[in-house]
Design goal:
By secondary structure, this protein is an alpha+beta fold. It is built from 14 helices and 21 strands. The protein has four domains: 92 residues, Rossmann fold (3-Layer(aba) Sandwich); 56 residues, ATP-grasp fold, A domain (Dna Ligase, domain 1, 2-Layer Sandwich); 128 residues, D-amino Acid Aminotransferase, Chain A, domain 1 (2-Layer Sandwich), CATH 3.30.470.20; 87 residues, Glycinamide Ribonucleotide Synthetase, Chain A, domain 4 (Alpha-Beta Complex). The strands form five sheets. Strands 9, 10, 13, 14, 15, 16, 17, 20 and 21 form a nine-stranded antiparallel beta sheet that branches. It has a four-stranded parallel beta sheet with strand order 3-2-1-4. A hairpin with a 3-residue loop joins strand 11 and strand 12.
Length: 423
Amino acid sequence: MRVLLVGSGGREHALAAAIARSPELTALWIAPGNPGTGALGTNAAIAADDVPALLDFIRREKIDLVVPGPEAPLVAGLADACAEAGIPCAGPSMAAAALEGSKSFTKEICDIADIPTAKWERFEYPANALEFIRRRGAPIVVKADGLAAGKGVVVAMTAEEAEAAVQDMMADGSLGDAGRSVVIEECLTGEEVSLFAFCSDETAVLIGAAQDHKRIGDGDTGPNTGGMGAVSPPARFGRAEQEAALDLLVRPMLREMVRRGTPFRGVIFAGLMLTEAGPKLIEYNVRFGDPECQALLIRLTSDLLPALKALASGDLGNAGISFSDEASVAIVMAARGYPGKPARGGTITCIEEAERLPSVRVFHAGTALREQDGALIAAGGRVLTVCATATDVAEARERAYAGVRAIRWDDAIWRTDIGARAL
């Protein structure tokens, strides 16, 4: 099978590693890829959201299966373009990808399908949003309505923080079009977990779950990020609880999407809050999470490629995948300055030494090769994800942090408490 994987982050490196192990694979391309994916297949210098260029490449290389990694190409209509060309794509249509592309769209689906979620309102004008905040008080959550690469959510503990978020997103335009309108909702409390499933029409097949660590600082302090680390499986959220959450929070959404004439086919990532009143939906994403994907796939024991092929064809009877009973911990090494302006260009060495440690695997995200000498350098905010597995979280955590300490990179920052809550 000739496969094109779209994306360039740690998630895509983990997907490439899983796909590359398949005996059904004959050729793997990654667009645009990174130095890590380049060791597993052939990188193609095409932007992930450049749908016309991707389609030209797909036709030219006679691709059998397209696997979208991030949300941007899906919201831009990659799956629709593939469908028109008769090429299987393991991702949802542009209309169905609105579940991630618009926070207010998801909230409307929840209201109609009776899916438990936070109370909310949408605002198009800063003055109205500010008046609502002053009336409701804090804690309160301000979300950019559109795609913001994981950075469009502010959990404000004071009204002043919420007002500053509205000013930043709506008036100052820090997130561009994504923040032109905002959703403001009640602040849910509890444990946050990420649930993943293959979905087609009204059917959902459980993949698994992980627990992300969103904030930049230890103890969940500082601004939100795209994710600073993950643990899989989450503590006290086993397979029975995961299946029950699918029944409550995912399958009703699938039925509503079918009713609307925009059925969902692809990977659904449901961000949940396990509250005292039961699980409630925080958001849907229409792809694997990052770094949850790395934490999940390092535990994978089955062949992922046939499952992705089955997903693309809508034949979920053949989409099952299996995982080891081991625990995994994923730790993101980010660049100093992230999630603001990250330091770029620093040399990274000793990844091979880290991967010689027991059960440690390092996935590239924001990396590049320096033109002058081919040295590996930092080229983004979240740069590496160091993962490890073990029989329990404590040992997996120890191994993952040993891997982090083995890597040499002067500008690296990371959280020191990933997995601590699971213990």
